[in-house]
Amino acid sequence: MAKKRFHDSLWKPVGRAISDYHMIQEGDRIAAGISGGKDSLTLLYALSEIRKFSPVKFDLYAITVDLGYDVSLDPIRDFCREINVNWSQVHTQIGPIVFDYRKEPNPCSLCSKMRNGALHMAAQQMGCNKVALAHNLDDAIETFFLCLFYERRIKTFQPVSYLSRRNLMLIRPLIYVHEKTVTNFALFFKLPVVENPCPANHHTERDEMKKVISFLEKKFPGVRERILTALKNAQPNHLWK
């Protein structure tokens, strides 16, 4: 009964995204990037449930890139055990490098590149052919506005993209799911969210875009879906990064 509560807002959009973009095939080895936030834990839970009932058989793993902060990741480890997913922790010093050593004025870009590099390398070493990322509908629109306002580009990320240097496919099964749905899902299922230790948390350009989009949604209800549909219907490849 509990899962039916989120049928139309989470399970159905996830299934539609997987189907629309052929995200999962027989025999895939999928590594989910798990930060410990609500989005990545929701992604992992959803994929673990799909794995149980899908006629398409695939293996699922979880990878957490430790940024070098003194934060316990035991809740993530225990949650992965509970849902029967193998979990790996990648130790790094990305946080201290970005904030203490380099003192980056705009830390998010470098941190993201280093974190993604560590995640992709770990997935490749584990023999995975795909990496699942927890970007949702709001993330796609925020990225579009970030590129438009700060980089003078009309771009956002693809639901599915290929990393030729790593021979990895990136998939984003939550691409049709609202962030509000993810928040409610994580609360309802009591997912073990780990507090984000990043010093820049809640003080980023992305947070500013959240405010802009929230304003637009109040002014024009349903604008999120219309923007995503416009991006989806835009055929030229230059609209995607």
UniProtKB/TrEMBL annotation:
<keyword id="KW-0808">Transferase</keyword>
<dbReference type="GO" id="GO:0008033">
    <property type="term" value="P:tRNA processing"/>
</dbReference>
<dbReference type="GO" id="GO:0016740">
    <property type="term" value="F:transferase activity"/>
</dbReference>
<dbReference type="InterPro" id="IPR011063">
    <property type="entry name" value="TilS/TtcA_N"/>
</dbReference>
<dbReference type="InterPro" id="IPR014729">
    <property type="entry name" value="Rossmann-like_a/b/a_fold"/>
</dbReference>
<protein>
    <submittedName>
        <fullName>tRNA 2-thiocytidine biosynthesis protein TtcA</fullName>
    </submittedName>
</protein>
<dbReference type="Pfam" id="PF01171">
    <property type="entry name" value="ATP_bind_3"/>
</dbReference>
<dbReference type="InterPro" id="IPR035107">
    <property type="entry name" value="tRNA_thiolation_TtcA_Ctu1"/>
</dbReference>
<feature type="domain" description="tRNA(Ile)-lysidine/2-thiocytidine synthase N-terminal">
    <location>
        <begin position="30"/>
        <end position="207"/>
    </location>
</feature>
